[in-house]
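User: quick one
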Amino acid sequence: MTPRRRKVPWGLRLAPYLFLLPNMAIFAVFTIYPAINGVNISLYESPNGRVFRWVGLGNYESILTSSEFWQVARQTVTYAVAYVLISLVLATFVAVLVNQQRRGQAFFRASLFVPVLVSPVVVGLVFGWILQRQGGLLNEFLALFGVDPVPWLVDGTWAMVSIILVGVWTQLGFYMLILLAGLQAIDPTLYEAAGMDGATGWQQFWGITLPLLKPSALVVLILGTIHGFQAFDFIWTLTGGGPVGATTLIVQYIYENGFISPIRYGTAAAGGVILFFVVFTLTIINWALSRGKDDE
Amino acid sequence: MFRRNITRFSALLAVGALALGSACAPGETIEEPDDTDNGTQAPAEPPAVEEGQFAGETLNYLYFTDGPDEQATRDLIADFEAEYDVTVELEILAYADLISSLNARLSGGNAPDVVRLTGLGEFAADLLPLEDYLGAEFADEFLEGPMMAVRNNADQMIAVPSDLTMNGPLVNLEMFEEAGVELPPTDDPWTWDEMLAAAHEVQEATGSSYAFAMDKSGHRVATVLAQYGTALLNDDGWALDKEAAVRALQPLIDMMADDTMPRDFWLGSGSRYEGANEIFLASDTPIYLSGSWQVGQFVENATFDWGVAPNPCDVECGGFPGGKFMAALSASDNPALAAEFVRFMNSTENQEHFASVSGNLPTRVDLAEAGVSYPAEAQAAMDVFIADLNRTAEVGFVANAQPAFGASGTALTGQLDMVVAGQKDLATAMDDLQPEVEGIVEEMGSW
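Assistant: Done. Structure below.
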C-alpha cells in the first residue's frame, strides 16, 4: 500500500513561483521582450528605430541571398569550429596539468583565469601591438630565431589564425576551471584500482578521465559554441573585421547593419534571429548527441 | 499537475506574447516616403524677445563632447542662464550613444529642446526651422559652405553649423628643418606633386619610417578627391569623376605598395575608422593628412615642433570641411526659447569664445574674415586652417552636406582596402564603387 500523499496547501505551492516572480519580471522586461521585439523588428525596415516599413520576410531574403552574408557565415563557422576544438583540447590538457600539481594549484588556477577578467577591448588593443608586422613583440621575438616578419593582422589567413588564438587565450582559463571541477569530482579510487590492475597513465586517461569528464566537456562544448558564434568585441578592436573583411564574423555583420550608416535595423534584427536559431540548434544537437551516447 | 499547468500556461503566454509582439508594429509605420513640402515663408525680421519673456523656464540641451568644448559650452550656458533667467540642463552623452538616445527620446515623446549633432539627415523632419524664430536674415550671418548642410528639402534652415573643422596636412617642422626642405607659405600652397616630393625628400634625409600618413577615413580620402576637383556625391547623387579619382588616389596606393605610406595601418584596421596620429607623434612621418581637431592634442602631446602646411592644390585648393551642428527640436515645449538659445550660443562673441577654447574654426562670416584669437601655441596652425577654409572648393561643402556622405565614404575606403590588398586595381574599384554608392543614396533617400 502506497502512503497517501499529503495535499500541499495552495499557497505553499504558489510560493516558489512568487519568489521567482521579481527575477522573472526583470528577465521578461529586459530579455524576453527585447528578444520578441527583435523578431518583430526583423519583419520591418527601419533606418532609426522610430519609423518602420513592413517588408515581411524581405530582410531574411536579402540576407540569405547576399554573398557578403555567406562569406561572413563561412568565416564564423571556421572561427567557431577552430575556437571550440582548440579550446576544448587545450583546456583539458591544462586542467589535467593543474590537477596534477600538488603545490601552487591555486596560483596556476588564478593565473590562467586572469585573461577572462581582462576587458575584451583591452585584449584587442594589447594583441594589436603584440601582433604588429613591423615592430610587434611576437615578430621581434621570432626574428631572434631568423623567422621573417609574419603578417599576423594584414593577411587574411594569418588574421583568422590570430583571432582564433587570441579568442582561445581569453577564455581558456574559464573552460579550464569547468574541466578542473570535473576532474576533481572523479573518484580517486578508480585510479587506484586501475593502477593496481596495471593500467598506464595514458590508459587511465583514456579509460577513466575522459569518459568521466564528458559532462564537463559538454558544458565547455556548448559554452564554447555560443562564445564562438558570438565573438565580436576583441575582434573589432584587434582587426576591425579586416583585412578586407577576412575576420568579419556574424555579430560584426549585425553590428554594422544596426549601428553604422546606412543603418538597417531590420536587417540587423534578422541577422540576430538567424544567429539565435543557429546557436540554439547547435546546442540542442550537442546536447542530444551527448545524451544519446550516455544512453548507449 | 499544478506544475504542468503552470508550465503549459507559461508556454502559452510566451507564444501569445510572441504572436502579439509580431502582430504589432515596433514603432511608427509608413507606407510611402513622405515628400511633403511644408516650407513656409520665414519673417525677414526675427520676432522680438522681450525682457523676462523666458524667465523661470528650463531648457534641455543634449550634448556630446570632444573634450575642451565642454568647458566653453558650460561658460556660455552660465552666461545664457544669467541673461535670460532660465535654467539649462546640459545632458552630456557619449557620442556613441547620442543617435540611439535621441531616437529613443523622440519616439518616447521626450524630445530635448536643443541637440548637438554631427549630421542632420535622419533627423531633418524633427528639427525646428530656425528662421521662423530668428528671421530670414539670420542665415546670412554664416558662411555659405557650411550652410549647405543645414537646409532641408524645403530650403529651411534647420540647424546652425556651430563649429567647423577643416582637413589638412600637419607637418613635423623639425624633420623638415633637418632635411633642409622649405614649406610653402600659407597664401601660396604647394601642389600634390610638390608635397609628395617634399615628403619623400624629408623621409630620405631623416630616415623616418614613412613619407606620408593619413587617417583611414572616407572623409580624409574625400579631401584628396576634392582637391582633384571631384567628389563622391552632389545634390543629384553619385558625382565621382572616376578618371580624376584614379589620378588623385593612385599616388597613395603606390606609396602604400612601397611602404612609404603605412600599408599595415590601412589594412589592419578593417572597417573601422583609424587615426594615424600616433604615427605622427612618434615622428615616423613628416606629413600627416588629418584635420584641425588634432591641434589641441598636438599642443598637449607633441614632443617636437610641428605646424600646419596649406592643403595641396591640383584642380582645386583648400581642404575638406567637417564639423558639428546645433539644432532645436520641433517637439520642444518651448521652441522660441530653444531657437533663442541656438542664436545666443552662435553670436559673434560667443562663437569666438567657443572656437577659441575648443580649437574649432568659426562658421560665422564675420569671424572667418576677422579671424579668431586662439591660444598662442595654436594660433599659427589655426590661421592656416582658416586660410584654407576661405579657399575650399564648393564641391567639398556640397559633398559633405549629403546625408549619404558618411556611408558612401565607408564604401570608398572598403573599395580602397581591396586595392591596397592587391585584390583589384583602382579603376575597377571605382567602377565597383558606383553601384554601391548609388544603392546607398537610393536607400537613404527612400526615407
